[in-house]
Design a protein that fits this description.
By secondary structure, the protein is an alpha+beta fold. The chain folds into 3 domains: 41 residues, no CATH class; 133 residues, Sandwich (Jelly Rolls), CATH 2.60.120; 30 residues, no CATH class. 29% of the residues lie in helices and 22% in strands. Strand 4 and strand 5 form a beta hairpin. The longest helix is centred in the last third of the chain and has 18 residues.
Length: 235
Amino acid sequence: MHAPSEEISAKGLDLLSKLLDVDRVKRLTAAEALEHKWITGAVSSKAALTSQKPINRSRMQRFADQKLGEDALTVRELDAGDLLIKQGARAKEVFLIKSGRCEVVVNRPDGSEAKVAERGEGEFVGEMGIKIRADGDYDVKPAPATGSGANSRSDSPVPGDRPEASDSIVNVATLLRVKNKWVGGRRGADVRALTPMRVLVMTQAQMQWILEHDYGVDGEMTDTINARKAEMKKS
């Protein structure tokens, strides 16, 4: 963005830059914007702004915590040694650890085990079984060719089409939003409780809901899965 013509505080500029970030994973959602210090008024100087506690970037955790308050998520309890995830099983759930610790273990073809990592409170497990794919839904159809008498908007109704969108905008670029879908793959490792644990269970339907309602979740999850794959490769 160009520099605003009006004088804006450091807090205001920080909020604007985060709302306009081209990376949709880093871009603030409406809920996150409401937590910003420019909104809450908790910061009064640029120096204090740089030291403020960062907004929680885990959109999945935000959703899980919200749904827990509504009693919409199942809580599962495990004893030390219990299996939460079995290698090779079909992935149908993702788990948020509320208390306790677990280990991620890969079973090798020769019968040996390789410990990949440990996970603790506030972390998710089970993402590695999730695959994200597009189902081909769109907000706005591609604009037809323009010319004499040509209309820049389709005459047929399009689900999700916004009547208030200007013709010029539709002509400049096709406004597409592919709706991604989460599907379960196969588990790549065992997840075993090291201590007594409490986990929140997020079903495939609940994961699909948050994917459709938060534009950054698919990118956030992709980054997490890539990091997990790197851990698996090292093991």
